[in-house]
């Protein structure tokens, strides 16, 4: 306390005991924080992949060719899915191959994709050139498939699902091309004009389709 007085420290033993009691909980909390940080980082990387892929879809859709179906987007979606698989550490094997193919099929030749295209053609009040409309539709397909893939891969990464859950992932992807898909494309169309830059179109679309956490 001063040069002539001394007070022995008190409570050290109790502090050590309490620290030891709480240590396992503290370690678990730290592990959860680290795990959440890694998951958030993966989401950021994944979103950037979907953004780039969406813009690529917009550029492909803007080419003046009939947009009869979504098959022309298959190469973009394949590259998108493979890149997302790397982010979430999903290895390529026979099971994951079927998993990936199920996602691609839903986004290209499935009944859900064809129904979505038919619904998009019937959207009223869109006064845009055919090339711009096609660009919006193409970008929206890629964005919807990308965001659905992020959700599916994240469930696998978290151990809640496996790449053997083919029926489940098919339902997930089909849900991405439901009525809500039409509504989002309609919303995007209202924000876009003939002069909107292709990259800006991609950003608008991704903003509407991105997974909300």
- Summarize the helix and strand pattern as letters: HHHHHHHH
- Beta fraction of the residues? under 5%
Rg to the nearest angstrom?
25 Å
Average pLDDT number: 82
| Envelope shape | elongated
Largest β-sheet summary: none
Structural class: mainly alpha
Annotation, overall tally of beta strands: 0
Multimeric state of these chains? single chain
Percentage of residues assigned to helices = over 70%
Span from first to last CA? 54 Å
Query: Unreliable runs, pLDDT <50, ≥5 residues?
Result: none
Brief digest:
The chain is mostly helical and 213 residues long.
List keywords for this structure.
213 residues, mainly alpha, 8 helices
Task: Describe how the helices and strands are arranged.
Layout: H1 12-62, H2 74-87, H3 94-108, H4 111-121, H5 130-157, H6 166-175, H7 179-191, H8 198-209
Task: Describe the structure in your own words.
There is one protein chain. This protein is mainly alpha-helical. The protein has one domain (46-209). It contains eight helices and no strands. Helix 2 crosses helix 3 (94-108), helix 3 runs antiparallel to helix 5 (130-157) and helix 5 (130-157) packs across helix 7 (179-191). The longest helix is centred in the first third of the chain and has 51 residues, at 12-62. It is elongated.
């Amino acid at each position: 306390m001063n040069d002539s007085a001394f007070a022995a420290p008190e409570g050290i033993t109790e502090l050590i005991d309490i620290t030891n009691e709480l240590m396992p909980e503290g370690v678990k909390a730290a592990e959860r924080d680290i795990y959440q940080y890694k998951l958030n980082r993966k989401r950021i990387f994944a979103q950037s992949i979907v953004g780039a892929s969406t813009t690529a879809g917009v550029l492909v859709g803007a080419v003046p060719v009939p947009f009869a179906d979504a098959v022309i987007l298959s190469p973009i979606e394949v590259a998108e899915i493979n890149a997302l698989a790397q982010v979430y550490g999903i290895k390529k094997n026979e099971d994951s191959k079927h998993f990936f193919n199920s996602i691609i099929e839903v986004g290209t030749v499935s009944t859900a994709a064809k129904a979505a295209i038919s619904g998009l053609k019937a959207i009223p009040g869109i006064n845009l050139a055919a090339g711009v409309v096609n660009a919006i539709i193409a970008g929206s397909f890629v964005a919807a498939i990308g965001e659905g893939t992020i959700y599916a891969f994240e469930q696998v990464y978290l151990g809640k699902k496996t790449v053997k859950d083919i029926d489940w992932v098919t339902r997930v992807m089909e849900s991405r091309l439901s009525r809500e898909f039409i509504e989002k494309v309609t919303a995007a169309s209202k924000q876009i004009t003939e002069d909107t830059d292709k990259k800006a179109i991609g950003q608008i679309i991704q903003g509407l389709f991105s997974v909300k956490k």
